[in-house]
């Protein structure tokens, strides 16, 4: 969690500096970021549907494989799968 907070803090600091310099951020608009999230989530629909159709449990898949793909490797997860 600490790296996420540090990243957020650095982003806020840069945003304040950009505002003081009166320049626009080169970051993509929110709509593009939402589209990227949609792509990540959409990639999980087919494997999830296959597991549901096969009658397999999906909670472990959502917690392990899906979450790691969408969210990336979370801090404190170093002891788990490499």
Automatic annotation (TrEMBL):
It comes from the Bacteria. NCBIfam families: XapX (TIGR03510). Pfam families: DUF1427. This is XapX domain-containing protein.
């Amino acid at each position: 969690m600490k790296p996420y907070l540090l990243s957020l803090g650095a982003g806020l600091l840069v945003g304040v500096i950009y505002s003081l310099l009166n320049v626009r951020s080169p970051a993509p608009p929110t709509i593009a970021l939402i589209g990227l999230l949609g792509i990540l989530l959409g990639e999980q629909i087919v494997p999830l549907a296959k597991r549901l159709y096969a009658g397999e449990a999906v909670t472990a898949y959502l917690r392990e494989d899906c979450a790691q793909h969408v969210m990336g490797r979370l801090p404190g997860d170093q002891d788990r799968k490499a």
